[in-house]
Write a structure and sequence with these properties.
Blueprint lengths: L2 H35 L15 E7 L6 H9 L6 E7 L6 H11 L5 E5 L8 H12 L4 E5 L3 E2 L4 H7 L5 E5 L2 E3 L5 H11 L1 H12 L8 E5 H5 L13 H11 L3 E4 L4 E3 L6 H18 L2 H8 L2 H16 L3 H24 L7 H24 L3 E3 L2 E5 L5 E3 L7
Parallel strand pairs: 1-2, 1-4, 2-3, 6-9, 7-10
Antiparallel strand pairs: 4-8, 5-10, 6-8, 11-12, 12-13
Helix pairs in contact: 1-7, 1-12, 1-13, 2-3, 6-7, 6-13, 6-14, 10-14, 12-13
This protein binds the ligand CCCCCCCC/C=C\CCCCCCCC(=O)N[C@@H](CO)[C@H](O)/C=C/CCCCCCCCCCCCC and uridine-5'-diphosphate-xylopyranose.
Amino acid sequence: MSSTFVCTIQGAAIFFLAFGIGMWVIHFMAFFWSKWKLHRKRSWPADIPLPGVSIIKPLVGEDPHLASNLETFFTLNYPKFEILFCVQDNNDPAINIVDKLMDKYPTVDARLFKGGEKVGINPKINNMQPAYISMKHELILISDSGIRMKEDTLLDMVCHMDDKTGLVHQMPFTCDRQGFPAILEKVYFGTSHARIYLAADLVGINCPTGMSALMRKKLLDEVGGIKAFGCFLAEDYFFAKSITDRGWKITISSQPAWQNSGYCDIQSFQSRISRWAKLRFAMVPPTILAEPFSECMVLGICVAFATRVLLRWDPIVVFLIHLLTWCIMDWFLLRSVQNGNIPFTKFEFVLAWLFREASAPFLFIHSLMFPNIHWRQGYYRLQWGGRVEEIAPKVKL
Ligand SMILES: CCCCCCCC/C=C\CCCCCCCC(=O)N[C@@H](CO)[C@H](O)/C=C/CCCCCCCCCCCCC
Ligand SMILES: O=c1ccn([C@@H]2O[C@H](COP(=O)(O)OP(=O)(O)O[C@H]3OC[C@@H](O)[C@H](O)[C@H]3O)[C@@H](O)[C@H]2O)c(=O)[nH]1
């Protein structure tokens, strides 16, 4: 064997081992941060009045949980807020649900905006724009249609908005629902996704998902309002980037986001995760290189190879120990994020976990091979950097 070849193999082994150690550090950082940050109540100074919040709810169509999810916004325990529902289609079935809720809670300040306004490509921004220009409070909460609130969720978010903070976001998680797809979603959002999300929050890396984001409106107004972000599909990432670029902090709140969509199936879960991956690849291209190695199975193979080359350890044994310890760490992280009873057995957890971990590399390859995006009614092509253009719905996605 030539010495160049030996050096290359040893270099690769050292790289994989270092990456493996890095990922184990991330496991511990995420677990520590989940214990430190999540499910810990904060209070608001008694001598300062709570700021008003305009809650914008962009809606497209209905699902079996929509009415009960939306109702949780009418029963929030918060002194000063308005709810601004937005639908882009004048015949959207969500209109009926919103009308009924507004009749049921006449004392809650709520309005419905129909038709949106075309200010860019991002359909969610277009949908929200009319509400944005008529909102009246200093804080804006953008909250996706599938989100459910507890009575104190809004207060919890506002309590994290200190003088230096410009954006408070909720870490995505899920409500307890029945069936394997629901278990899979909870396992994903409580393990793999939570790990990176918490570690990123701990070290201040911009990693927010826009399903529930509370912001200072003046910070959006300073750069031209939400319409300035209409050229991006991942408006959430660029809201946060714009805010941190100006020296403000972003943080997660103590309650995770309670996603509770009435439609829960494996295919829509995977296409959503794949859509997010395509957004990340376009916005932050180094993730294309880093993500596969941050996945349990791929990293396990790499670490088994590395320890074989460097330490002569049995690769099968190393791989199996890696898998087992990763799975156990994930179970503890999930329990910490859930902060209560896990609504399924350990056997169901292992099944969902294995399914998710084994399918992750294939989803990654699929997302790279088919980079165009189908989101609700629209089809889009992403450019490097994250700008987007609309395309005809003819390409395989
Ligand atoms: C030895 C160190 C290895 C570090 C490897 C890290 C590899 C990154 C792996 C996965 C990234 C997953 C990010 C999950 C959250 C993002 C969810 C998402 O895609 N949301 C989009 C849709 O709402 C949103 O538009 C995207 C926002 C963020 C994109 C930026 C991702 C950068 C992630 C880098 C995290 C590094 C954390 C390191 C912590 C020490
Ligand atoms: O055409 C659309 C699509 C979506 N939306 C709204 O946008 C919100 C998020 O939509 P989905 O639930 O389909 O999508 P996701 O949960 O994957 O969204 C996530 O990824 C993309 C980001 O831009 C979002 O901010 C983030 O929440 C919903 O409230 C939906 O009603 C629109 O208003 N119009």
